[in-house]
Amino acid sequence: MSGPAKVYLLWHVHHQAEEDADARHFTHPDDFWSDEEAGDDVKQLGTYSSRERAQERIERARSLPGFADEPNCFYIEEAVIDEDHWTEGYVTECG
User: Fold this and answer.
1) 10: which residues sit within 8 A by CB, 6+ positions away?
2) For the chain, what are the domain ranges?
3) CA dihedral sign, ordered 70, 59, 50, 45
4) Residues 6 or more apart whose Cβ sits within 8 Å of residue 33
5) pTM of the entire structure?
6) I want to staple 9 with a disulfide (CB 3.0 to 4.6 A). Which of 19, 22, 60, 77 is the partner?
7) Cα separation, 51 vs 7, whole angstroms
């Protein structure tokens, strides 16, 4: 019996420098955070059948304009196919 089918989503974040500070970058392979309100630009590069294929794409992307400026700000997200998220719904609160 095999486990659930998985895919690997590849993300890149171009981090915007914070006011009076340098831009923060990922320092660990499992880092993934962004502040889109502050100007971080998050891009999904693709969806892959294996972590290895996603890693191969990172190697190719690192030489491209923009990605070369932040060569360590890639993140591979493992996702299970046909898995529900946000099963409880949500409430929006206005300030």
Assistant:
1) 44, 45, 46, 47, 48, 54, 57, 58, 74, 75, 76, 77
2) 6-80
3) positive
4) 13
5) 0.71
6) 77
7) 8
pLDDT digits (tens, 9 = 90+) for 22-60: 555 555 555 554 555 566 788 999 999 999 999 999 999
For residue 59, what are its two tokens? 């190697």
Q: Locate 75 and state its tokens.
A: 């993140």
- List the beta bridge partners of residue 78: 8
Q: How many CA atoms lie within 13 A of 38 on its CB side?
A: 16
- Reading the block at residue 62, the tokens are 């690192």
Residue 12, C-beta contacts closer than 8 angstroms, at least 6 positions apart: 42, 43, 45, 61, 67, 70, 73, 74, 75
- 65-70, long-range: CB < 8 A, 24+ apart: 66/14, 67/12, 69/14, 70/12, 70/13, 70/14, 70/15, 70/25
Distance CA 14, CA 72 (A): 10
